[in-house]
Amino acid sequence: MSGIGGNLRIDAERLWASIMETAAIGATEKGGIRRLTLTDLDRAVRDWFVARCTEAGCSISVDELGNIAARRPGRDNSLPPIAIGSHLDTQPTGGKFDGVIGVLAGLEVLRTLNDAGYQTHAPIEVIDWTNEEGSRFAPAMLASGVFAGAFDRDYAYSRTDREGLSFGAELERIGYRGDEICGARRLGAFFELHIEQGPILEAEGKTIGIVTGVQGMRWYEVTVTGMECHAGSTPMHLRADALVAAARMIGAVQAVGLAHAPDAVATVGLVEVRPNSRNVIPGEVFFTIDLRHPDDAVLAAMEAALRERLEAAAREDGVAMALTRIWDSPSVHFDAGCIEAVEDAARTLGFGARRMVSGAGHDAAYIARVAPTTMVFVPCEKGISHNEAEKSEPGDIAAGADVLLRAVLATDER
Ligand code: HGY
Ligand code: MN
Ligand code: MN
Ligand code: MN
């Protein structure tokens, strides 16, 4: 890349300070963040983001899914914007960096361009995608999925949390239901900076992950129905214990994951026992399953094996079992041109880098359907994420943001 663009570097301290500022919104005692989608804390961090981008001279648009786009004009505003983004919602025991660094690195790119008086050819947009985590409202990446045409608006609005509150009502309540049609605008390219959320970069001593794609992911819901009965007066051979059956099924989920390891992963993360009383034999258990694998055909085989095992367990334990797939996000391959821009930037800036597939899901997985897309990973300590102890170094995050800046400017110049 020619000219001053090649010499621009982000302000690492300012970026770190913005990350620590947002970490205070929903801070937990253990040093993490609890900032679930469409809660008052999500509204607070959105308000913070809109205020900072407005101060940076951006125009703000909010679409009907609550996706916020902060736009910095370029020389030719008829061109589709080059977008940078990620998410500001977190897991219940989330960390300071998951999603946040992708949005705030975008803000830092805008600030750096402003400081340098650098005018890009195309407009630049920084986007906060609603409900990436999928913890409160399943599935994950819901709003970037609507933007990419994977879901329709009303399906997203209809999704409810475990208290029965709907996505649409909560979006309205926090005041972020915009009127722009979600997905109506074209993006020229999309770049997402994210912590790796795995151990590879740290183990190899690399600073930058050049992300070539995202593995396939499927989510399921299981309801096991037995018979509530008295814990004291019901003989063991007369029971239809939903929790004992569910426990065997959960063991089967792990067995399916292990059978296709090391590339497969299988997780049961949410379990509800009803009536959840210590002297009642559980009559019903609800639990979720998260299956992932880089190869969609293997993912399909894992699903078939899972279904067979759960049905056999239900028969043997004399309970009913309903297994519903609620989400299927096929594996994704990112754009070769964007990948090269990231690879060239890491090489020019002298950072150790390697190509890799993402184990975690990201908004980029859906945006890749509608725009040339890729991701930049930076290490996190011991690969720990979705955990309040999540940690990433200021130097690594700054390196990722500089690679992002350079890749965006190189794409803008093409
Ligand atoms: O589930 C995921 O991989 C993402 O963190 N939502
Ligand atoms: Mn994330
Ligand atoms: Mn996450
Ligand atoms: Mn994610």
TrEMBL record:
Q: Which GO terms describe its molecular function?
A: hydrolase activity, acting on carbon-nitrogen (but not peptide) bonds, in linear amidines; metal ion binding
Keyword Hydrolase applies: yes
Q: What Gene3D superfamilies does UniProt report for this protein, alphabetically?
A: 3.30.70.360, Zn peptidases
User: In this record, what's one Pfam family?
Assistant: M20_dimer
Positions contributing to Zn(2+) 2 binding: D98, E133, H386
The free-text cofactor remark is:
Binds 2 Zn(2+) ions per subunit.
Entry keywords, A to Z: Hydrolase, Metal-binding, Zinc
UniProt record similarity statement: Belongs to the peptidase M20 family.
The protein, known as: Zn-dependent hydrolase
Tell me what organism the protein belongs to: Acidiphilium acidophilum
Its ancestry begins with: Bacteria, Pseudomonadati, Pseudomonadota, Alphaproteobacteria, Acetobacterales
